[in-house]
């Protein structure tokens, strides 16, 4: 594949996949070397930055994804995810903000309706559940990060992103007793 066609082929893969792809995955799918893919990705990222569009080629960890720019996510949510109710989105935001969070703690914060929310969010592949004693520990998935255009996989960066979207200021948490 020639140098001019490779960015277009990568763009097609990212658009069609609906998920993040690693440089290796892209190289394998297009039968080319990783160095060429990295170079083409840089071109593609720059092209999207120069063009007035609501879409960007971004990174989720070490993977690339085609997604909405952060400033357009809020207006797209009502039509992009109509199956989630407002309360379910609030539950998802709490999970993302406090992750890893125990389901029992979330139930205390939200009420018993949280169990139906969790079931729906798990079916939408936006959260993971891990058995933790008599309850579950909840975390968000990569699909959550990609869908909402969150540029980091780090818990603290996700918290800051959510806080900025809902207009809250995160104060430093006091050191817990026995914590170092």
Cα(first) to Cα(last) distance is 54 Å
What is the CATH superfamily classification of the largest domain?
Winged helix-like DNA-binding domain superfamily/Winged helix DNA-binding domain
Secondary structure: helix percent: 55-70%
Low-pLDDT runs of 5+ residues are: none
Helix and strand content put the structural class at alpha+beta
What is the total number of structural domains?
A: 2
CATH topology of the largest domain: Arc Repressor Mutant, subunit A
What does this protein look like?
- The chain is an alpha+beta fold and 180 residues long.
- The protein has two domains: 5-68, Winged helix-like DNA-binding domain superfamily/Winged helix DNA-binding domain (Arc Repressor Mutant, subunit A), CATH 1.10.10; 79-166, Orthogonal Bundle (Arc Repressor Mutant, subunit A), CATH 1.10.10.
- Helix content is 55%, strand content 14%.
- It has nine helices and five strands.
- It has helices at 5-17, 23-30, 34-50, 70-80, 86-98, 103-110, 114-123, 142-148, 155-166, and strands at residues 55-60, 63-68, 101-102, 127-132, 135-140.
- The strands form two sheets. A three-stranded antiparallel sheet has the order 3-5-4. The chain has a two-stranded antiparallel ribbon with strand order 1-2.
- Strand 1 (55-60) and strand 2 (63-68) form a beta hairpin.
- The longest helix is centred in the N-terminal third of the chain and has 17 residues, at 34-50.
- It is elongated, with a radius of gyration of 19 Å.
- It starts with a helix and ends in a 14-residue tail after the last helix.
